[in-house]
Write a structure and sequence with these properties.
Oligomer: single chain
Number of strands: 14
Mean pLDDT: 82
Strand content: 15-25%
Strand order of the largest sheet: 1-10-13-12-11-14
Helix content: 25-40%
Structural class: alpha+beta
Order of helices and strands: HEEEEEHHHEEEEEEEEE
Largest sheet: 6 strands, antiparallel, barrel
Distance between the termini: 84 Å
Shape: elongated
Length: 361
């Protein structure tokens, strides 16, 4: 037996099936219509509210990727001239303050110290001789005074005889001349004693020390200081860099840099923000730092200071805008960001970074 056709023809007996499609919204349940209406009303309200909350409620931030890690670098030069005899460090080596970096040939300064010692000995010998001369001159003064007393006694006797008529004018003149000579000799000896004592005296700057000895001692101290400076030491803890100029046998000239040390604990970030970002920026505001070399590492910091001028003002050739075709360009201002966290990776000077500063609502 054949199965009945599920879709009978239109002219088949019995009523034909009719499917009516209601219009949109017509015949829908009331609850569905209310949900659709509420969604149409609340959607724009929620969008506007979210925008207002983001604009007025979210903390404001400014950020820049024009930022770089900076560290203090100490350039080290020799303070005395001479040939480098040894180099005690290698490139990228960590050193402590006081560690020996390199040494300079001390031969010249040893000779200078010996020469200064000879000058001190000469000055001391001269002082001893002057002191002995003063003592000898003091004895000469006493002898000259005795001679003067004898000359005066002879003159008195000659005068007494002259008054009685038993003497001649020539003898009187000779006696008077003897007295004058004795007086002049005493004056000369006293002057030489005063000069010797003046050479033995000390000045107010170096009381108790003869000036000649003080000068010789100063020369020796200078030579000893130069001798100490032949051993060049690290002035601070840090990493040694730029060591290529430091070679054994190279001549050292005072003031010419030979090696540099990147000081420990001096890492910071120099961020160049647009001038339009500085309106609400203040020192002390919280900052976040991301280093391009270490993805995923974020460091906390704060605004330490804001530069006193734009980058163009401190360039070698500042921009001159007094031209007819002037175009206004947004300037960049350097902002120093202090790093508060201790990084677990080395913060190499010059690394690129991104800085975000939270400036408030």
């Amino acid at each position: 037996m054949a199965e009945a056709d599920p879709f009978p023809p239109a002219d088949a007996k019995g009523p034909a099936m009719r499917i009516d499609s209601p219009a949109d919204g017509e015949g829908a349940p009331p609850a569905k219509r209310r949900s659709r209406t509420a969604l149409m009303i609340l959607g724009p309200v929620i969008a506007v509210g979210a925008g207002l909350w983001y604009w007025f409620g979210q903390p404001g931030v400014v950020e820049t990727d024009n930022a770089y890690v900076k560290q203090d670098m100490v350039s080290i030069a020799g303070e005395v001239s001479g040939l480098i005899t040894s180099v005690k460090v290698r490139d990228s080596q960590h050193v402590k303050a006081g560690d020996v970096l390199f040494t300079i040939d001390p031969s010249t300064f040893n000779a200078t110290i010996r020469q200064a010692d000879a000058q001190i000995a000469t000055a001391q010998a001269r002082v001893t001789a002057l002191a002995a001369d003063v003592s000898a001159r003091a004895a000469d003064v006493a002898a000259a005074q005795d001679d003067l007393a004898l000359a005066q006694a002879n003159y008195a006797r000659e005068k007494a005889l002259m008054d009685k008529g038993f003497n001649t004018r020539a003898r009187m003149d000779a006696a008077g001349h003897a007295v004058a000579v004795a007086r002049d000799r005493i004056a000369a000896i006293q002057a030489s004693v005063a000069q010797a004592r003046a050479e033995l005296a000390s000045g107010a700057q170096v009381p108790g020390v003869n000036p000649a000895i003080a000068a010789a001692q100063a020369n020796r101290a200078k030579a000893s200081l130069d001798m100490e400076r032949t051993v060049v030491r690290a002035p601070a803890d840090g990493i040694v860099t730029q060591l290529t100029r430091l070679q054994v046998g190279q001549m050292v000239f005072p003031g010419a840099p030979l090696v540099s040390i990147v000081r420990d604990g001096s890492a910071r970030v120099e961020a160049n923000f647009k001038e339009t970002d500085l309106n609400h920026m203040r020192p002390g505001q919280r900052a976040e730092i991301e280093i391009d070399a270490y993805p995923g590492m974020k460091l906390k910091g704060h605004v330490e200071s804001i530069g006193a001028g734009t980058g163009s003002e401190f360039s070698m050739l500042p921009a001159q805008n007094a031209t007819g075709n002037w175009v206004k360009v947004i300037q960049r201002v350097p902002v120093r960001i202090a790093i508060d966290d201790k990084a677990d990776r080395p913060l190499i000077s010059g690394l690129s970074s991104n800085v975000t500063v939270h400036v408030g609502k």
